Amino acid sequence: MLTPTEQRIVNALRKSKVATMQDLRDRFQLSHMTVFRALKKYGYFHSYNHNAGYYILHDLPQFDDWGLWAYRNARFSRYGSLPDTLTALVENAPPGERPGNWRNACRPPSPTCSPVWSTWAVFKVRPSTAGRSSI
Question: Does pTM surpass 0.85?
Fold first, then answer.
């Protein structure tokens, strides 16, 4: 059960859909840990771009078949971080799937994702009956 303060944080995030930690802290004049505990208690996702700086309640995003969802420039994944998302996409790929398809699906709009994309070559899918990848 949420405390009244935690419920106010959840209600505010539900209304705005997506917010940064700084937005929530400033709005309620609370510490980072107080806001974080409320989000953790209710359940949340953080963006895989913008240095995980955007938050959304766990029951708001409508993920597509790839497990991805976007709100303006913030990108979210049901798998969490960008490396975890790429790993899940590779592991769940049908045989012969090409990494370029995932790059287009994830389309990171921010330079904060570039270090992960620069290591993209390590993800190669072997056409096989199992559809597994070599990393």
Answer: no
C-alpha distances in angstroms, 94 versus 99, 113, 128? 11, 25, 9
**Distance (Å, whole) CA 78 – CA 58:** 9
Angle at 64 (CA atoms; ends 73, 62), nearest 5 degrees: 75
In sequence order, which residues have a C-beta less than 8 Å from that of residue 122 and are 6 or more positions away?
A: 135
Mean pLDDT by 10 residues, the chain (135 residues): 96 97 96 96 94 95 90 92 83 73 58 48 43 51
Distance linking the first and last C-alpha atoms of the chain: 42
Residues 75 and 126 in one domain: yes
Residue 34 CA to residue 27 CA, distance in Å, equals 13
Please tell me whether residues 50 and 98 are part of one structural domain. Answer: no
In angstroms, rounded to a whole number, what is the distance separating the alpha carbons of residues 21 and 117? 26
> Which of 12, 35, 57 is the last residue before a domain boundary?
57
